[in-house]
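Section 5.1 Outputs to date
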Amino acid sequence: MICIPVIDKNVDDALKSAENALKAADIVEFRVDMLENVDKEDIAKMAKYPSIITIRADWEGGEYNEDNNKRMELYKIAIENNAKFIDIELKEEKNKELVEFRDSINSETKIIVSYHDFEKTPDYDELLQIVKKELEIGDVAKFATMAKSKKDVLNILKVVNEFEDKIIGIGMGEEGKLTRILGVDFGSILTFSSMEGRSSAPGQVDVVKLKKIWELLK
């Protein structure tokens, strides 16, 4: 799957961007932390699209710095409306609460538990432990780390291959672009791609270029 992040500031613009992105991608990620004045009704609208609802906290590289209880309530609205995925941080103390809430109402939402390191890629053994911890909590493990060498790229793809179809593994930065291109072949459930020059993380490959590369590889 190809996922295009939606990074607008206005909710109406975000919904229009999602409709446009879904002409080229399989799924979109609504970066709710980047939106202004989001309410429960807005989350319900987003949940109707094939999407990941992400409200990334500022301490994990996002822009959400308001009351965390409100953040949890918005996530619960997404779960109540059967959003395809929500993305919650491994370091978030209330991540298990969201899983328990999902299970208690028999929601179909899959929960991605994620880890980010914008400075480096941990070694293979540490990445392995991070993924195992994530899968003890949620349905899908995700890590996005800054790749600075070929060894980092190899470690990322190796870990992805260990947890095929239960993981999203990404190497950020120029060195990590190869993981965005090959990750799906190694077992990642999706890769994040940019559209019209708009990206949410360093190293995202344009969706048109990505599809051409995949076609050439076939």
